[in-house]
Specification:
It is built from 18 helices and no strands. By secondary structure, it is mostly helical. α3 runs antiparallel to α12, α7 crosses α8 and α8 runs parallel beside α12. The relative contact order is 0.20.
């Protein structure tokens, strides 16, 4: 029987964990949320919430994962053999399964854009019409979704060292390089400084309770906590690594990427007279139009969608790893078979989401289309409930001796962390949960 794998290096773990967090949340959602909520004020609140709430919950997942040294379900059973806390692991698995089923659809859209950019270019007058035609084409969306899932399965079946860590070690540095290239191009556009001011000079009139809650939600979801992805990754971590330092590094990388996304997008938006509050269509509709107007725009749009693909893949492999690690338990020789089977099932479950904007557009579910319903199930229910339970478990079920042994940090910092995960973080999650249903 094969032995359980471990990360070969600290940097490999950090890059993989950061890759899980740095996905569409940082590159797609953060820019349009920032654009719709005042720019700099939203950024400031996002950074504060990341360190005060997101980081402690991320650290809680790290503690549970490394303490258990197994998949999330088994780890929680080991740490609480007489309780029902292992259902957190099953909730994380279900959330990851559903999340990847529609996340892979978006990954397919990115592949469609990238294929067009490389082959024919994206030079046209109406990008909104192009986007709508892509997502409504049943053959294209299903093929693109399938290709994206094949890429994800191919990486995960290779294991921790040969698959996930190797892929992340290439994709994450390239992601940073591409972001820096695009940032330089964006800030050198005429009129770009208006976008820089929007991102970094606060307009305090946007400092409201609603903006705070939205920033808290963005910080929480952008770190990929609540679906046991970080718990699963930490289970492959050796006892020698410092969890606090690793969690801090992942949080900082997530913030840096989010800021770089803002530097790429907002100077270009303002330089070409577009609105920063375009919403979710900002990168699929507005950004291609912007690149179309600048010198060498065809080259830079290819780089941008390669960057998007890398970010989306690093998150997708974390979601699939949750399903695979739970499925194989201690039978590591079955990884390849489980990765293929899981990927196939996730693809099948994702078919209604892929067709939600075409032949199934008239099929209404609670919250809208099937795609919207899957998003709501995970973002409004699965992830917040999972993070709440993880925080409560780490704060109340793990003893002080357990967490001290795992964290090995300054006693004052340890007490602060335990207070946050026991009281402050659960209160914040409940607040987000309530606010989302009040339409704030």
């Amino acid at each position: 029987m094969k032995q359980r794998e471990q990360w070969t290096s600290k940097i490999g773990f950090i890059l993989s964990a950061a890759g899980s967090a740095i996905g569409l949340g940082a590159i797609w959602k953060f820019p349009y949320m920032t654009g719709m909520n005042g720019g700099s004020v939203f950024l400031i609140l996002f950074i504060l919430c990341t360190f005060l709430i997101g980081l402690p919950i991320l650290l809680a997942e790290f503690v549970i994962g490394r303490r258990g040294q197994h998949d999330a379900v088994t780890s929680l059973k080991i740490l609480s053999p007489t309780g029902k806390w292992h259902w957190i692991g099953w909730l994380g698995l279900a959330s990851s399964f559903i999340l990847l089923s529609f996340y892979s659809v978006v990954g397919g859209w990115i592949l469609s854009y990238l294929a067009r950019a490389i082959t024919f270019g994206l030079n046209r007058s109406d990008y909104g019409e192009m986007f709508n035609s892509i997502i409504a084409n049943p053959v294209e969306v299903l093929i693109a979704q399938a290709v994206f899932m094949i890429l994800t399965v191919w990486i995960v079946q290779g294991g921790i060292k040969g698959g996930i860590e190797r892929a992340s070690s290439y994709m994450m540095p390239l992601l940073f390089i591409f972001f820096i290239i695009l940032s330089v191009r964006s800030v050198t556009l005429e009129g770009a400084m208006e976008g820089i001011r929007f991102l970094f000079v606060p307009d305090w009139s946007y400092l409201t309770g609603k903006t705070f809650l939205l920033a808290l939600g963005q910080a929480f979801f952008s770190l990929s906590v609540g679906v046991t992805a970080m718990m699963t990754y930490a289970s492959y971590l050796s006892k020698e690594e410092k969890l606090g330092q690793s969690a801090f590094n992942v949080s900082v990388l997530n913030i840096i990427i989010s800021i770089l996304a803002g530097i790429v997008i907002f100077p270009a938006v303002f330089a070409l007279g577009q609105s920063p509050s375009e919403g979710p269509g900002l990168i699929f509709v507005v950004l291609p139009a912007i690149f179309n107007e600048i010198p060498f725009g065809a080259f830079f749009i290819i780089i941008f969608f390669i960057l998007m693909l890398f970010a989306t893949l690093t998150s997708a492999i974390a979601m699939l790893e949750i399903v695979v690690s739970t499925g194989i338990r201690n039978h590591y020789e079955g990884r390849k078979r489980m990765a293929i089977l899981s990927g196939l099932l996730i693809f099948i479950v994702g078919i209604p989401s892929a067709l939600s904007f075409g032949i199934l557009s008239e099929m209404k579910m609670p919250g809208g289309t099937f795609f919207d319903f899957a998003d709501i199930l995970t973002s409004r229910f699965g992830m917040p409930i999972g993070a709440l339970l993880i925080s409560l478990f780490a704060g109340h079920m793990l003893t002080t001796a357990d967490t001290e042994d795992e964290l090995r940090m300054n006693p004052a910092l340890h007490k602060t962390w335990r207070f946050i995960v026991r009281y402050l973080a659960p209160a914040a999650i409940i607040l987000i949960f309530i606010a989302s249903f009040m339409g704030m």
